[in-house]
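Handout for the seminar on molecular recognition.
Each group receives one record of this type.
Step one: identify the two inputs.
Step two: read the structure output and locate the region that could contact 2-acetamido-2-deoxy-beta-D-glucopyranose.
Step three: write two sentences on what you found, then compare them with the reference statements printed after the record.
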Amino acid sequence: MTIQFLLFSFLVFLFNNGASSYVPSQDLTSNSLAEAPSFHTRYHPNSDEQDVFNVDDYGAKADGTDDREAFKGAWEAACNSTADTTVLLVPRNKTYLLRPLVFNGPCEAKSVTVKIKGNLKAPSDRSDWSNYWIKFRYVKHLTVKGGGKLDGSGQIWWQHSCKINRTLPCTDAPTALMFYQCKHLRVSNLTSKDSQQIHVVFSHCSHVEALHLTIRAPLWSPNTDGIHLTSTRNMKISDCFIGTGDDCISIVNGSKHVHVNNIVCGPGHGISIGSLGANNSRAHVSNVHVEKATLIGTTNGVRIKTWQGGHGYAKNIHFQDIFMCNVSNPIIINQNYCDSKIPCYQQNSAVAVREVTFKNIRGTSATDISVNFNCSSTVPCKHIELEDISLVSSDTFTSSSSCINVNSTESGSVFPSCNTKRN
Ligand SMILES: *[C@@H]1O[C@H](CO)[C@@H](O)[C@H](O)[C@H]1NC(C)=O
Ligand SMILES: *[C@@H]1O[C@H](CO)[C@@H](O)[C@H](O)[C@H]1NC(C)=O
Ligand SMILES: *[C@@H]1O[C@H](CO)[C@@H](O)[C@H](O)[C@H]1NC(C)=O
Ligand SMILES: *[C@@H]1O[C@H](CO)[C@@H](O)[C@H](O)[C@H]1NC(C)=O
Ligand SMILES: *[C@@H]1O[C@H](CO)[C@@H](O)[C@H](O)[C@H]1NC(C)=O
Ligand SMILES: *[C@@H]1O[C@H](CO)[C@@H](O)[C@H](O)[C@H]1NC(C)=O
Ligand SMILES: *[C@@H]1O[C@H](CO)[C@@H](O)[C@H](O)[C@H]1NC(C)=O
Ligand SMILES: *[C@@H]1O[C@H](CO)[C@@H](O)[C@H](O)[C@H]1NC(C)=O
Ligand SMILES: *[C@@H]1O[C@H](CO)[C@@H](O)[C@H](O)[C@H]1NC(C)=O
């Protein structure tokens, strides 16, 4: 562990020599505030009418019994307060057991802050569940922060996953923290641990910031994606540590204008656009920028994955300033993705993949193929650019590319190159 950490620190140091820092700082620096887009929750300056609703005052006991009713009561009061700014407070140093809970909007208050200083814990039984553990729905100008921890008690769900026990049928487990149709949302300074399935989902949200989040689940935990975006627009994700059993960040259909900045990912499956186009569906993802990321021991680095038979596009996607440490597929586009018990068959339509750039991506690969473009024969990848790439295998200190149905353009120094065929 220590040696790995030292190695990692050393590599980060080497990589950062002369470049800006790739490791998120745990403090919310003035710099990151200055860079924050202006779309997050607006406070009303000089407002003394910041009403605080403490869950303890609504009967929360933090004694291992279910505190859901107290949280509901405090939310109703905070959400429907006539004060401009209200705070729902979860006090520090306490652990509240919560059964699945929805925080519904719209609210009367102009903005609501949920300050989670203490810990929230999910019950470790699987009865009486929905597809979420904690869900915010239809809330505008919402801030969720506080330095607290959400513990999804996921082990019981993982054991019952068909990916762990192959004799069991495949069923979904809840998302730990879900935001649905929220606008002007800021989620910061929280830890999510051992989610039942996905840690944090943003679905049909817009003008969102997610920052200073720490997400942890074991490598073997099934489908525990870190941050998942679906139909979400104008989103910024920055300064997060994510180590989990599935994608650190996954961005699927209906999402656009997404900026991902300063992320450390590992273990996990990397940063993914997709999967898109399953079951012949139409998918649109565009304007995604992933900048400054460090991936450590992940199965993929930066990836676009689409199923055969889909429609639509993934376009205008940029990956830049990324450091890979022993990543199995550092750069990968797979238009023949198939994550199904039944083999996928050859189909003529595909989700188009175009205008994708990979710039300043360096480090080591755990396999010999570090650039892999497995594009569709009927809808080949278009306008794929590689610039300043240096990826070698951690074992052999060399590596190669596999580039099918794509003509990439290359500039700067690109190794391995797509243009010199290896076979
Ligand atoms: C707020 O008040 C409205 C109108 O009375 C009500 O419909 C809504 O359910 C309340 N919201 C909450 C969270 O209690
Ligand atoms: C919380 O715990 C810390 C460390 O145990 C202690 O210093 C602090 O006073 C406690 N805070 C409250 C509000 O109880
Ligand atoms: C996170 O929350 C804790 C507790 O509220 C606070 O002390 C700390 O300053 C916050 N950190 C950031 C980066 O906002
Ligand atoms: C897998 O599930 C089956 C059916 O529920 C059960 O009998 C078996 O003990 C499980 N195996 C493991 C390793 O948990
Ligand atoms: C894809 O996203 C768009 C925009 O949110 C939505 O209208 C459409 O229904 C989604 N398609 C699928 C297959 O989910
Ligand atoms: C595709 O459709 C089948 C049948 O409706 C369903 O079982 C399967 O989960 C779907 N696959 C995906 C990836 O949505
Ligand atoms: C392309 O991807 C498919 C599905 O993952 C795989 O079966 C196939 O071997 C890949 N082709 C190459 C050349 O890697
Ligand atoms: C790289 O990763 C592979 C498989 O993920 C592992 O077997 C190997 O020990 C790792 N190498 C280093 C140098 O960490
Ligand atoms: C790549 O370029 C060659 C030569 O211009 C062309 O024949 C081929 O069709 C192109 N392939 C793709 C996948 O665009």
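Reference statements: Residues 2-16 form the longest helix (15 residues). Helices lie at 2-16, 30-35, 68-79, 155-159.
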